[in-house]
Design brief:
By secondary structure, the chain is mostly helical. It has 15 helices and no strands. The protein has one domain. The N and C termini lie far apart (47 Å).
């Protein structure tokens, strides 16, 4: 596996945009269906707050498969949301989801060393959150610490789901390969992350500023920023696929099954 130059990170962003442009309505519909399903799961008492995180790897394969379909010239439909549930690797994907949950709770838990648990309360809703507690607290530093602590886990998780699903890897091997693949392409991932940070923050800020100067109507600003944020999120999801193919290659093309003839059936 050759090391990738830093500029590859920007190419991943451009490839994500290119994938989105081929089927923008279809991929956006898939994303909105996913968001609606997550909201529905949130209604389930107790476990409803945990399920969205546990199911991240399962639904991640929905978007990876969608990008695969776009690349192969196939239409993307909302039923791709179920592709992970139909996979023979479902149990392993769910185990990966549990690790997602534990890693996230662990990172946020460590942040309590900095702010006394304010960020933890904000994320979990345990014990309530008083706005006065945030004033003068170290919650910003706690957020940064949680993000830094989570980085090694994110590296191990990044490619784990497709490696489990498309390469039939066991959980431990998939985490191992993912971690070192991301580490080896570290410069490319650094630029990739910075690019999305700039796009995700500066672009909405620039648009909201321009609209505010021209119209100065908060309702219109929200009306414009909401679809913009959805589009940017969908494009970012589409860019995950190129990060995989650049390192592990494209998945084997899915062949359309041909019905057996009467002769072959005999």
């Amino acid at each position: 596996m050759e090391k990738l130059p830093a500029k590859t990170g920007w190419l991943w962003v451009k490839e994500g945009i290119a994938l989105f442009r081929k089927q923008p309505a279809e991929v956006s519909t898939l994303f909105l269906s996913y968001m609606f399903l997550m909201l529905a799961l949130g209604i389930v008492p107790v476990i409803g707050q945990l399920l969205p995180l546990i199911l991240v790897p399962v639904f991640a394969m929905s978007f990876m498969q969608a990008c695969r379909h776009i690349e192969e010239g196939k239409r993307v439909y909302p039923n791709l949301l179920l592709v992970g549930f139909r996979s023979p690797a479902l149990r392993t994907l769910l185990a990966l989801g549990v690790l997602y949950l534990l890693a996230a709770f662990g990172a946020v838990g460590v942040s309590a060393l900095v702010d006394g648990g304010i960020f933890w309360n904000a994320m979990t809703g345990i014990g309530g959150l008083n706005p006065k507690d945030i004033e003068g607290s170290n919650i910003s530093l706690a957020m940064v610490l949680a993000a830094v602590v989570y980085i090694p886990a994110a590296m191990a998780f990044w490619f784990a789901a497709p490696l489990i699903t498309w390469h039939d890897m066991p959980l431990g091997k998939a985490l191992f390969y993912s971690f070192f693949a991301v580490r080896r392409a570290g410069k490319a991932f650094l630029l990739y992350g910075l690019a999305w940070l700039v796009i995700g923050i500066l672009l909405p800020a620039a648009v909201s500023t321009i609209v505010a100067l021209l119209i100065n109507n908060m309702t219109i600003i929200v009306f414009i920023l909401l679809p913009l944020s959805i589009i940017l999120t969908v494009v970012m999801y589409c860019s995950f696929y190129p990060t995989y193919t650049a390192i592990f290659g494209r998945p084997q093309r899915e062949e359309t099954s041909v019905p057996e003839s009467n002769d072959s059936a005999r």
